[in-house]
Structures are given as structure tokens and as C-alpha cells.
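Researcher: Predict the fold of ABC transporter ATP-binding protein.
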Amino acid sequence: MLAVRPNPLPAAGPAGATLLSVNGVTLQYKTRDRLVTATYRVSFDVAREDRFILLGPSGCGKSTLLKCVAGFMTPTEGDMRLEGRIIDRPGPDRMMVFQEFDQLMPWMTVIENVMFPMRRTGRFPGSEIRDRARRATEKVGLGRFQDVHPHQLSGGMKQRVAIARALAMEPQILLMDEPFAALDALTRRRMQEELLQLWDDVRFTLLFVTHSIEEAIILGSRILVLTPHPGQVRAELDATAYSHEHQGDADFMAFTRKINGMLFGTEETAHD
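Model: C-alpha cells for ABC transporter ATP-binding protein follow.
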């Protein structure tokens, strides 16, 4: 396990208890020409140890919702609460992994990149930081690459460094914004499998954004389907019965078609 000391944040509750509550959130931002409404009165709850997926077409506001959970922006209407506390700023209790591979410092080695946020936040004693970073890189299968620089890594390996860096901080929730979208199909599938294995080992809480129906079903325990712009809740679905192993099964394909119909407005709004 990555944890080697008590988390300085409030003690974690039991698995299944609500960790994140999003309550009637409308998000707006200004462009040069107009005011854009990204989401309209979106509500959902994320439980501890959940793998919660925000799924929707481009422009539905799912990435904007994630940025709001991260504390990078505030709702126009409604609120977001982590363990009952209103989110109004970034914090180490929420760590984000982006799609872009350039999120790593190119002049730092792998282990230095993983150590960087721990040093900046001061959450951990200096004597523990390197050991925590080493354990985190080993957890994501990069133990032999701790001393190399990002330009020597493949895209999938860079994403594993970003995941290790986030998990080493012991966040209450890991936020991932289409982190595998730029990878080739084979690497993307391998990263999905590795993320599920990592979750099985560590049991962190995951809030994951994607526009891929198959990825949402494979990775998610719950899926929130959002309508096209502005994003509203179309449905919330239980996906715990599906995995890579079921991808060719009739039930998996039927579930995929069901979600596809929701995204394109051919099914009624439903909560499963």
C-alpha cells in the first residue's frame, strides 16, 4: 500500500459512504463574444472507493465539472461539498491527472516528478518523501525507471508517472480528465486494465471523465450520462456487472446501445 503515515486530512469514512456531493451545479464562463453555460443544475453523489464516470459528448461540460471539483473554478449556481465542506479552492485532498503528457517537469527525473507536489505542499516530513515516491512508482510498475527523464518514456508511461504522483499525495479523490484519450488503442486498453488493478490494490475514490462509452462501462462502477450542451443529467447507471472480459458479450453490447441511445436522445431519462 502507498500509505505509510496517517493522513492529516479528516479521517476517511467507510466504503460506500458519500464523499463528494454535487448539488444543482450550473457552470458558466465568459468568452470574448458571449456567456457560455457549460452545465445546468447538475447533481450527483460520489461514494468512497467509487469509480464514478462523467460521460457525455464534447461540449457537455464534463471537464468543466471536474475542474470545479478540483477547485479551479466556482459554480454559478449550486455547490460542491467534500465530506460536507464546500469546495472553493484547490487542495491536496483532490489530485488531478490530465490528458496532456506535458504535465511532467521535463528537467526532473521520474522520482523527482513524483516527489515535487509532496515537497511543495509540506504535507509529509522530508525524510519520508523519497520513500513514498519510490513506493508510488513501484506501485504503477515504474520502479526500474525512477531515474530517467520524461522524454525517455512512452505516453503510457508518462501517464503512469502522473498517476503515481497523484496517489502519493493520498488524495481523498483522484480526478482524471480523459487521461488515455491521446494513447493508441492497445496502450489505452492496457492503461485501463492497469488503472483497475491499481484501484483494486489501493481502493482510492475515482472521478473520471470520458466521451468513450466502452471506457466508461469498463472503468466505472457508476456512470453519469450527461446531455449535449449545456450538460444536464440524462441518467445515472450501475456498471458494476461489466468489465473487459464481458466486452464481447450480448449484455455488454446491449448496455452500450442503451447508453448510446441516451447520449443521442432516443431513450427517456432514467435512474438505474
